[in-house]
Design a protein that fits this description.
Layout: H1 2-22, H2 43-50, H3 52-55, H4 70-75, H5 78-87, H6 107-118, H7 142-152, H8 154-157, H9 173-177, H10 181-190, H11 211-223, H12 236-244
Length: 246
Amino acid sequence: MTYRLIVLSLAAFAMLASVACQNSPGRPSRYSKVLPPDQLLDFTTLYAENCSGCHGPRGSRGAAIPLADPVFLAVADDDAIRRTASYGVPGTPMPAFAQSAGGMLTDKQIDAIVGGIRSWAKPDGLQGVSLPSYTAQTSGDPQHGAAAYATYCSACHGRDGRGGAKASSIVNGSFLALISNQNLRTTVITGRPDLGAPDWRMNVPGRPMSAQEITDVVSWLASQRPQFPGRPYPNPSVGSATRAIP
């Protein structure tokens, strides 16, 4: 009798211990399933882990273009967003995320990111507005761009583009070395509403920039890009002479 009681007691103890372990804090339930990283398709998680560091939480107030901006989502179609997310922008901080380009995300994950970004669009917000094209349709003229800059941009960025009372320099060599012409164009069109910078319609109220003026301004800015970005001296001989000093 005593032996049987001991066996029953041990069985009951084992059962209670098993239940306690199964319900211990932090232990996954038997119904939970850990997804492999390449099967995660939740936009919120994918965006937070891959995009928010540059484009900001919820697509705003980051170092890079605000992806939730209605103007950006009106001019950039799904293919443009997918192409940039997949392959990045060579020569800039924008990396490639697609596995086919050396990144970590599958095509389905890229699609989830594109679809989530698109869900931020406000289609009714720009009805009746004639939008500039996302990409340049003509060649730009730097000289005409300098004149357009003086009209639309100098009030904030200064007469020569080196900064003013309202905004910073946009001809700084390091800045231009890290930004593509397309990024410049996109920023001229969309502005930075999260930072108080107007879009192409409001630089001069009542006088929106034309598509050609946008293209010309970008051409003028691109002409300011240094041939050898990062070189500390504009004249190589100056650097050589300075380095020769013991």
